Here is the input.
Amino acid sequence: MADSDDWRVTMSVSHAQGGQERQPVSLRQVEEDIRRQVGRDIGVGAGEAQIFLYAGTEPAAGDAERIARDVLAGHGMAAESVVHRWHPIEEQWETPDVAMPQTKAERQAEHQRLVDAEAAESLAAGIAQWEVRAELGSHRQAVALARKLESDGRAVVRRWKFLTVGANDEDGARELAEQIRQEAPPGATVTIEQAGMGWPFPPS
Here is the structure.
């Protein structure tokens, strides 16, 4: 498996013309053949009709794609390819034409743009994009902390010994987590993560 996988090639596989007479080969077998050919520096995976190649650089991704095409051709298959690069601030795959921030100021501006987009989406939908989770030592502590946060106008989802509070964006979640750490009793564990519950909350 590659140590760095900033680049990804997605190959949508189909049978080439004249390939019907060949012995059918599973995509898993093709995946293994490609893995042996490209070497250990390239990550290789397969879906139902796709081959994925992960590489640390754009040239390495291009070389791996050419090797994979040769392997596919040997099995009577062809593929359409698309290349993406991992965007560390957006935390998603982007096409290579999307510029990456190079300076500290550019990274801060990109981060702020992402935060603003998260907040706008959150406010438009009325659903938290991020959440803060606090795990307490007892049910009594969870109830007390939930009541305190609710008195501050926060929408809280509480279970026996833990509670979650929604936030518009990542920066808001970090600020809220710091506030909760200050108000929670010693020993409480406070973490943030992207919201998966989809519960509505009053914008803060």
Remarks:
- The chain is about 40% helix and 25% strand.
- The domain at 7-94 is CATH 3.30.70 (Alpha-Beta Plaits).
- The CA atoms of residues 137 and 187 lie 7 Å apart.
